[in-house]
Amino acid sequence: MTDGRLLNDLAEHNGSDKSSGPGNNAYMGLYWEYFKRHGFTRENVRHVLEIGTNKGASLRTWAEFFPNARICGLDITRMYEIPKLLDHENIHTAIVDQGDGNALFDYAIGEEVMVNPDGFDIIIDDGSHDQAHQQISWGVLFGFLRRGGLYVIEDIITGENWWDGNLYNKSRIIPTRAIVQTLEQTGKLESPVMKDYEIKHIVDCYSYCEYRESPVTIFQSHHPQLAFIGKSPHVN
User: Which of 184, 210, 211, 227 is most buried, by the most CB atoms less than 10 A from its CB?
Assistant: First the structure.
């Protein structure tokens, strides 16, 4: 079995909607594509952060796929967690509001920098899907991504008005998909909730920013959407 197939099978076994199982988002094929692009293997990934623990299915999948990695999960609540999924020596969770940039910074600069001063290999935002939260998290946490690391934002489709803008874009800011595509196409990044120095760091240090859609279809004609942002391996 190839590692790419194993990654999807683990996700399906653990009940993650990232798998290609019926009704799921089929993200794992894209994840594996970018893992290979960054030279990530099952053995060399050491530090993964995912926002949005939910039941714990994704964290369990990462823990089983990357046996040498510290797998960190953040959420604003533990009410949805399934304890048996999180019962793994490499999984570490914390309660942090991703919409609070100061809280995110304090978490990362505190416990996680002490564990690994080089930063996270992979950071995944599968949290609230609120547009302001996605952009705040990206602004703060990209600075804690190691050189050559990968930042992923899932489900950026939620910022579109046809989806449910009243729920996922209460601040009525420019949607995350729009700022991702602008960065990809022009090299320019604008966000009303990112600090100027955060924007400068991203623009100065990213190696690529790519908007992708999964192959499955939802709501008859739409595809689940992600952003993949790579950090340059040559950052000073």
Answer: 227
Q: In what order do the strands lie in the sheet containing 91-95?
A: 91-95, 70-75, 47-51, 120-125, 145-154, 225-231, 206-213
Burial profile 150-166: b = 16 or more Cβ within 10 angstroms, e = fewer: bbbbbbbbbbbeebeee
One of 129, 133, 201, 222 is an active-site residue; which one? 129
List the domain boundaries for the chain. 39-231
Output the pTM of the full model.
Answer: 0.95
User: Can 88 be counted among the known catalytic residues?
Assistant: no
CB 137 within 8 A of CB 194: no
DSSP state of 222: B
Closest CA to 132 of 74, 75, 182, 179: 179
Has residue 66 got a pLDDT over 70?
Answer: yes
Quick one: 39-231 is in which CATH superfamily?
Answer: Vaccinia Virus protein VP39 (3.40.50.150)
- Cα dihedral sign, 151-185-223-134: positive
Dist CA 139 CA 18 (whole Å): 24
Span 166-186, average pLDDT: 85
Please report, as a single letter, which amino acid is at residue 174: I
The whole-number pLDDT of residue 173 equals 85
Q: How many CA atoms lie within 13 A of 129 on its CB side?
A: 19
Q: How far apart, in whole angstroms, are the C-alpha atoms of residue 136 and residue 82? A: 28
pLDDT-based confidence at 23, cuts 50/70/90?
confident
Indicate whether 165 pLDDT > 60: no
Q: Which of 92, 150, 75 lies closest to 119, judged by CA?
A: 150
